[in-house]
Amino acid sequence: MSPIYPGSVDAAGQRATLGVLGGGQLGRMFVHAAQRLGYFTAVLEPDAQSPAGLVSHHHIQSGYDDPAGLAQLAQRCQAITTEFENVPAQTLQTLALARPVAPSAAVVGIAQNRIEEKAHFTVCADVSGVSCAPYAVIETPDQLRAVQVERADLLPGILKTARMGYDGKGQVRVRTTVELAAAWAELGGVACVLEKMLPLTAECSVLVARGWDGQVVSFAPQRNVHVDGILAVTHAHEGNMPPALATRARDAAVSIAQHLGYVGVLCVEFFVVDDGSESGGLVVNEMAPRPHNSGHYTLDACDASQFDLQVHAMAGLPLPKPRQHSPAIMLNLLGEVWFDASGGRREPDWPAVLSLPGTHLHLYGKLDARVGRKMGHLTITGPDVAGVKTVARSAAVLLGLPGLDAI
Ligand code: ATP
Ligand code: MG
């Protein structure tokens, strides 16, 4: 892979252009990072009013499997990435025939399927030292019956569809074998995994960037608080978790990326469980083959963000070791923030929020606020952790955000 230098122009007079599949907020923040460096950008996204499409030099409005759209993307861009992990693997394969694509179809395919993902984590466990939760695959009625008879140890558990799950969707909590059968039917009898419900004491994630040449950099683990299966708060500061645990999580995430031969930004999510040890036990949950909501604080608290590293990795530029210069807390802003207690539409009190010191507001340009929809995030930075927490609490109260007791 020869590097694509920002601001360069090829023999045909075309400016160095980076492409992204998907027009959501992750694509938008990728576009911002690429443009800041001087690249032109192209977004392939069917929706006419997408967060990324609205800010990109080029918006190719087509489906992810439309050959004409893909040909146009390949023609316009020198390298292509994805912000949307459910992009068809065939799409990435097709594009890879014409241009460097990072991450590859093969690794995105693994991350798209919980069965393959868990198999990969199991292979990595020898090196990473971190396993996934006990689980069983359920793809057929015979497998369901076998699990009902032989795997009582997995109950209570969570039945998760192998594909297309996000923000807790495609998941049913089950306590008994009867509930398990009903849940599998409710999910349409599709390929699933039944995972043992673990007593979580915390959750964390690690962002890793790896280049075409195998160079790897990573951020310190961040601690994440979910409310109703959706990320609500990310703590990215000293003392967010025991240091021994942070080191283990970071090492495990790096070894998972290396083992995949990954190119780009990878986020690995972990559970922390009470195993009687001082720091707690670490269990790997899942991975996202792209920047991640839990890494948004890197935009304001680090000297290189997860999106900067995504740009560097795909373009074959060196990967600078990121340095976090400020403690940070990120608060997710879901559609709820635009509604009052009686369901009426309201405008959040931005003047009050933005007058708080160290607040960084990111809205994604989505026009209609809906409950559960990720509309933006607010990152709070400051000189010390105590001050950041105080401001984050004030902002959460002003915005009526959940998870206040977790800040
Ligand atoms: P996202 O894509 O938003 O990260 P997802 O829909 O892929 O989420 P998971 O990460 O598998 O789903 O689960 C969502 C949340 O549900 C987890 O962050 C955790 O809070 C809880 N959860 C999932 N699996 C388990 C488990 N085995 N034991 C206890 N809690 C769990
Ligand atoms: Mg998750």
From TrEMBL:
Residues 122-315 form the ATP-grasp domain. Keywords: ATP-binding, Ligase, Nucleotide-binding, Purine biosynthesis. Homodimer. PROSITE patterns: ATP_GRASP. The gene is purK. Coiled coil: none annotated. Pathway: Purine metabolism; IMP biosynthesis via de novo pathway; 5-amino-1-(5-phospho-D-ribosyl)imidazole-4-carboxylate from 5-amino-1-(5-phospho-D-ribosyl)imidazole (N5-CAIR route): step 1/2. It comes from the Bacteria. ATP binds at residues 114, 160, 165-171, 195-198, 203, 226, 285-286. Its EC number is 6.3.4.18. Catalyzes the ATP-dependent conversion of 5-aminoimidazole ribonucleotide (AIR) and HCO(3)(-) to N5-carboxyaminoimidazole ribonucleotide (N5-CAIR). The keyword Membrane does not apply. Belongs to the PurK/PurT family. It catalyses: 5-amino-1-(5-phospho-beta-D-ribosyl)imidazole + hydrogencarbonate + ATP = 5-carboxyamino-1-(5-phospho-D-ribosyl)imidazole + ADP + phosphate + 2 H(+). This is N5-carboxyaminoimidazole ribonucleotide synthase. SUPFAM superfamilies: Glutathione synthetase ATP-binding domain-like, PreATP-grasp domain, Rudiment single hybrid motif. It comes from Hymenobacter koreensis.
